[in-house]
Write the structure tokens for this entry.
Amino acid sequence: MLNEKEARESIDRILSFSKADESVVVLTGEETGHARFARNTVTTSGTKQNVQAAVTSSFGKRSGTATVNEFDRASMETVVRRTEEIARLRPENPEFMPALEPQKYTSVQAYFDSTAQAGPEYRARAVADSIRPTSEKGLVTAGFIENGGGFVAIGNTKGLFGYHPHTGVEFNLTVRTQDGTGSGWASRSYNRIESLDPARVASIALDKALLSQKPRALDPGKYPVVLEAPAVADLLAYMAFFMNARSADEGRSFFAVRGGGNKIGQKVVDGRVTIHSDPQLAEAPGRPFDSEGLPTRRLPWLERGVLRNLVYPRYWAAKQGKEPTPFPPNLLMEGGKDRLEDLIASTDRGLLVTRFWYIRMLDPQTLLLTGLTRDGVFFIEKGKVAYPVKNFRWNESPIAVLNAIEALTPAERIVSGEGFGGTDTPVVVPALKARAFTFSSISDAI
Amino acid sequence: MKELASVALDTARSGGASYADIRINRYRNQFINTREEKVTNVTNTESFGFGVRVLLEGTWGFAASSRVEKDEIARVTKEALAVARANREVNQERVQLAPVEAYVDVWQTPILKDPFKIPLEKKIDLLLRINREALTVKGASYCSSSMQFVNEQKYFGSTEGSFIEQNLIRSYPNFTVTSVSKETGKFYSRAAITAPMGMGYEYVDDYPLLEEARQAAEEAVAMHRAKSVEAGKKDLILHPSNLWLTIHESVGHPTELDRALGYEANYAGTSFLTLDKLGKLKFGSDIVHLIADKTQRDALATCGYDDEGVKTQEWPLVKGGIFVDYQTIREQAHILGHKSSRGCSYADSWGSVPFQRMPNVSLQPSNKPVMLEEILADTRDGIYIVGDSSYSIDHQRYNFQFSGQVFWEVKNGKITQQLRDVAYQSNTVEFWNSLDLLGGRQTYRLGGAFGDGKGQPGQSNSVSHGCPVARFRKVNILNTARSV
């Protein structure tokens, strides 16, 4: 793990070989360790150390990029020559953007020594603490813990420099009943390892496994739905992936306007939906700059249902006369005041969904997604969880769900079923109740 | 290399390990991306490092570093031993490795043209010509194209006495054409049906990319006028460029033994193909023969030896419709009563722990020379699908839903018109039992993926699936059109 001074020295050393008009170096490093467990025992575990440099050199409007993870003099010089060779051989890119001048980055506290230092003994203890309560109850657990530190640094021949150290711990597990009829899951991600209580997270998965066992088959169809926060996070993530101004302006996105332009300024979802990013949020810090060195900042994406911003890559921003806007460093959705119990209590007939799985885009014009439920779906009757039901395949658009909101819980930092919301791009979202959600067929998977 | 490897193996032995291996690997990639008349990205990546795996009293430990030096190898090996020691108390299942022969060998993907030696200008020129060709079609709005080339230079040494050097090459040209209608605000895309291959640049040279670019553009434009499909049960005729992905998801993954046993329960999931179904379950109709093969020429998962030094092989997974075998690695063989591993161990990087990954899994064609035309002629009410698109399957591999690139209505033995908004949804066993007509060897081709995800931390595997054109009876067709 290189500190700021060492990272700057490495970048400067690489840049010193540059004969190009401009060169940029993005240096990343990681020191991580992980442990996996399954069938109530530890399985594979390991540690990894790596530092890598991505170098981009350009002559006029021609640029080339190459990466290397060897830092002897010859390797560093070779990688720079390689980028220059690529740049010379390729045609000009009319969309080329020159390297950024020095930028001012917000200070983000995302690094904690304790998270970087925790070693194999810590992880073995976390594994043991997760397995003990589940095996005592005759259940079977499988899971994963990973912790460590890393950094990203950027520098260029114009004097720009940025350094961002970060740490993270990811912990998730699945608890299943011995007969395979019940399954529960929980997942957490924190920058500071003290925030993680493996036994508490394990108890959430354990409770779900017991509650979800022996599910009944319920007819597929449209149901009012209470989506727990991990399910909401996946819907937001898939919407965020497609929030690109260029695709919208080119007419190939849900955010496009027929005939040209995009939906910025238009109300696209329910007025209770407000989503923003803020790299400095202490409980879910985001990166202070993107891979090009563009600073991230507090920014609204949706405000009371109105689209406020889309991602503007630098070239497209310049062409359209807009501010360049990087992909969100984190996603923060405002919650409401209801508790999850209140959402259930206010539902006469509906479904409670723990999380989603295997989500894929079906139609980008409507953001129609397909996916499955996993680790607990429950039928709600007269304000109470009546019984577990079998998993469903669903076909639904996040836009439709965010237009059908009835109530929201306070937001919390969580990780989605598809893994969105780790320390790379933290997510803080509420659980929500929506008027309708389309479940299209039954899945026998548990 | 052997000298470096020996540092790890000796350190592990003297630290009490009953088994150890080291992989010292270099990975090279080239990515070239274009859109319309512009080259948007050219990147060459390279990553070098080593990973050491030790088995201490039946418990695994692993550590990896990018500093390939003797003192670092010794330090990292000790760290792997420390990981194993920390986990020893928690471990309830002592690892038992199936025996393996010691091999000293060199293996190389059989290629004709090394893609890393082909001049960049030639590749760029072809990509820009693809874009131009697509955009000559009236109504085609955008075309992006790309090439990716992969080279894995792998050195493996183990305490079994194996020292194996392998050089793997893979190539993948691709493009997508999009047609936007300003009048309706609708847009449709059609991606190439090229596949990533375990081949050199000869694949790019021999593939009719320009012809397909024009055809793709025409089909994308025609989508605006195509009929929105009527939902319901119809016969489905799948081109190999679509069926490969269905094989991957519904056959490749559920026949992974680690999934069946619960080792992947927390991420990718388990499998409905539990051990009690082995040799008994009627997985498909009588004409369904599915084989696993890590030796198939041109296929992505093909290599000489797996990542624990097991020589690669071919074996049946489904024979005459009956589920007969799994994919295994050394520590799993004894569970099935096998004497040796099937050779399915793979790690996607020097820094990743090797574990059970999918070999090439392929559907065998008919022995008769059945062509697509005969299958179409035999179909009264069906849909013919070319190319893969949206794909999703549950975590035990029962319920799946797939879409495609191009859809054709088949009525009374003939293709009548282009369709849109099509997806098919089924359950694995029901689907494979509905297969009633197979194309012959002439219709067989390989599809595949570079990025098959599995494991924690996530790893990516390259794998191919060969198949002929095939027909499935009365499959549930969905209409995916929606207004929001």
In short: Chain B touches chain A through 89 residues (CB under 8 Å). Chain B has two domains: 2-225, 229-479.
